[in-house]
Prior knowledge:
By secondary structure, the protein is mainly alpha-helical. The chain is built from 15 helices and no strands. α4 (67-75) crosses α9 (214-245) and α5 (81-110) packs antiparallel against α7 (131-146).
Amino acid sequence: MKVITDLLKGFINRSGFYIFSTTILSRILSFIASWIALQLLDHSELGVILLAFNIISFIIPIGGLGLHQSLIRYGAQLIDDKEKNDLFVYVLKRGIVVSIVLIVVLIIVSYFINFSFPNTQYYLVILSFSIIPFFLFEIVKIQFRLRFENRMYALLELSYNILFVAGVLVLTTVFKEDGYVLAIIVVPLITSLLFIKKLNINFKNNNKLSFTNLIFWKYGFFASLSNVVTQLLFVIDILLIGYLLNDPKMVTNYKYITLIPFSLLFLPNVFITTDFVEFTQRINDKKYIKRYIKGYLYFFVMISVIIISIFSILSKWLLLIFDEKLVQFNNIFLVLTLGVTGILIFRGLFGNLLSSIGKAHINYYIASIALILNILSNFYLIPHYGILGAAITSSVLMWLTGLFSLLFFYKFYYLEN
């Protein structure tokens, strides 16, 4: 169909293939870095570091109070590069100050938490300083996207992952656990500093744009909160399985069963990363947005049908890659795959379109309600159906959140605009 051809042509013209390739390579490099750490560090101590970093990972999205989210949404609506640069400087300066406050609060709170494992607080305190490097890294990436320099964005992402592998190898070899923690903090900072000079921004500017008001800050805050709650949706199943079944083997089984279906979520992310600035800049062009939606839906319905067809045939073989004992759970694998297609088709697109029209808080409300429903449903389904119950809950909610994103976008964009 022509709408699919136009979608893919626009994707390629905006250097989408570079982002796609970089995403694949980055996942491979991330795996290599994890493997190196596993070989060089004591597994128990590494587990404590990963636990501490998982906690920080939920806080990183709200680094700078989500100002990076405001940067990409409001920056995409600016035409003049000077205004985009002024907005970048505003976000950078305020974001770092807010991040410092966040780090101080996190460190203070950590002293009142009774951690189960030794050294957890030590690593948590040190890793809290990664909030600023990751905030800087994120806004530099966003600025390249705002300039439609997706190749530079891809190069930045790839450079980070290459440097991270090198950093983990060298620093972990020399300083062991502290070296691994240091690599997590230092690599995004070094990468950002190497690329930020390519933006040619005058950091002495203190020009405040008219829209950098409470609404601007509120948008970023809710957009970042939405990301945090969405992350929780992907880990709550694991936590509830462990709590309700009290069987570590079932936790492990479910974790590995979800690996392949959840890995498919990079597909809509690649398209949105490539196209978000474009369709946000043209959000008032309803003819363009309608055509983009049509092409996106047709393409991902087709992709979803292909995925379900292939996985229906090969599910047992795919699970056999991890462990022959997982083959018995192929029905759960297929249920999760079906659920993921709901995100591929609806949530990935309409959640971001809601952000484009300034309704990031709606995404937060949808994700929060889904999280509550997930907990309530799993408290019934997991005891009765085991990990199949968790898979059913997640799959249904993946579709429901996507459909509600569609309905709210239609309401705000077509009925109320």
